[in-house]
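[job 0412] stage=complex_fold ligand=iron/sulfur cluster status=START
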Amino acid sequence: MKLTRRNFLAWAGLSAMGAVACDVFEDELKVQSPVALPEDLVKGKENWYATLCRTCPNSEGVVVRVIEGRAKKIQGNPNYPTNLGAQSARCDLGLQQLYHPDRLSNPLRLNGAKASGRFDSITWSRALAEVSKELESRDGSVAMISPPMRGHSAVIADEFIKAFGGKRIEFESLDLRTYRAAIKNVFGQDIQPHYDIGNAEYVLSFGADFLSTWVSPTQWEVGYGEFRDSDHSHRGIMTHVDSRFSVTASNADRWIPIAPGQEGKLALSIAYVIIEEGLYPSDVDINGLTSGQGLNALAGYSPENIGSQLGTPDNVLGSHSVSELIRTVAREFASHSPAIAIGGGTAGASTNGLFNLESIYLLNHLVGSVGKEGGVVFNPEPPIKGLKGYSNSHTLADIEELVNDIKASKIKMLFVYNANPVYGAPDWAGLEQVLNSNDLYMVNIGSFVNETNHYADMILPDRNYIEDWGNDVPEPAAGYQTIGVQQPIVNPLSDMDPRSSSDVLLSLAQDLGKDGNMPWKSLEDALKGMSDELFNLNRGSVSGSTKQEFWTNLLRQGGWWDKSVVGRDQSNINGLISKITDKDKEPNLSGNGDFYLVPFLHNSLLDGRNGDIPWAQGTPDPITSVAWQTWIEINDKVAVERGIREGDVIEVKSGASSITGIAFVSPAQPPSVISIPLGQGRTKGSAYATDRLDGESANVLNIIENNKIDGTEGLAWAATTVSITNTGESLRIAKFEGDYESREVGFTEGEELIKTTSPGDHDH
Ligand code: SF4
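[job 0412] stage=complex_fold status=DONE, emitting structure tokens
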């Protein structure tokens, strides 16, 4: 029988007499009655409101379904330019953050020694009075750590910190500094470009898991869907080069495993073939790119010279050589126009990461896809003066400088704003030690207990994005001017008293007369001012006969965009190839282990920021299907040699430290690589983040060695080598697929790449 509200209530009546036939519903039905209906059965009117999601850094447009004042569902906003209604497994996390039982409800003041974990709940007026007093006495020595920020929240945070004479560091564990530098050097842009995958014929990607976690995955998944067009009238071809079998690798037509740090050499070897064989379009300025040297500019990068240096395992090549593979890829890439080359992730995370990424993005100039449909599409500056269209992306080197400033008492007060750098920075950065100092007063703004606010003097609970105002200039946008708008859709629950963090900073600045560059009463006020400026432009996607009507329509639509204002190519290609080859150096590795360590962002936990959310913990990884644990990806043949079986607890050791996790044995893992997801190993937070058995949860950031990227000082997080040891312990791995054993098949040359598995082959 179909379960309808009517027959549900009929069953509920029966249940009172103990006559319910269906065990599944028995418990539920006993507690239900027409006078105490569950919320989902209230016959309320539903409303959908547009806003901006803040769960991933790319902050996309969503619509939220509200019934009787409660948010029930989050979906992609079909109108929003970057995701066009698409969403990912992460989208529903917003609801679990909103209604999480462990969410901080009131300001908390340290009561006892630092890191004692003893906090008193206090009122906002007492909390703000104390913070204000500390700010006044420590004026000129105030700093802030936040994630990358854009829109008016970023403007307010920057002006606040400037007013008190300090600096704001935008920190993320796997920073994008090197990617930004490569885009600037190759295309002359500060703002990240968009990759028009939907109109491309060929995608050649290196290291960037752009269909899962890299930069703007939802936007590029939409493009990928068009690229693979289901009616087969248009089906692009994709080759992915990566040290790990990622989600993007699994969607490619061809995956080329490579040793971390060799991606640039491969890209320049592809460039060599394109120039040598004259495969470039007639309007490409080869003379300019090579400073008139032609192929000599790439002497030494012929496939025959480079092939043996890439670390590509022989078994993926069949009877072909690596040099033949390079020539094949170069010819395919150059003959399918428009074609895009994309690089990021591991490809930019060795000590020579800047060289690698510049070499990769150079390929776009060689095939004439820069600033063209189906190629690299640039984004314009935002239409509002002062509303910055890109974030700063500082690096771990900035955190190390801050640590030194705290030690030298140059910084005496620290705001940590929705960030968890104690978890997100390797131990050797020394942040945790200086936060424990009594000379430093730390204010933490956030929603959950974590490893950083464990050292706070004051914790101020923030509003969830569904309860708060905000705006964003998406980076990357879809190639035209876009501003997203966030509005409060529900009120906090009656027992919660969070405040908008931007409003808290504004009120502190106003209280101390330091709000000269912040002429707004509140964040809402700043957004209304922006709306009036957009109204005066008299263009774009929102209309209204009055400013008030325009504001209402802006909120209704979830943002403003104008397809007629696009970015433009500002590349200076003269001598570009020699500027890149001058940077060519072998990657520095440290750790003295037998394997490259390749960490990667977890598909739902990302860098650990979502660890408190059960939905994020329980969402199976798309490649391994593992949930809740730290798994260690090991090649199947290596596992046999080392006597390792799936579920064994493995110690992974670098020079810096060691961690343990559970072996996941895979034929798709390159033999020289150990891959480990970020996101677990939390020590402070909700039970969902921290309650784990010994050996099954670890923070891979703690074993990354202190290597920096030449030219950017970004963390070279793919420049560590590790050794592995079987601890002799074994745990059940929490995965959704059955037990499988792999075996090779293949009847023709090249098919050795393909492996299949059969249920029941596995004996443990
Ligand atoms: S993919 Fe991320 S940013 Fe986009 S809507 Fe979902 S949770 Fe939000």
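The two ends are 41 Å apart (CA to CA).
[job 0412] exit 0
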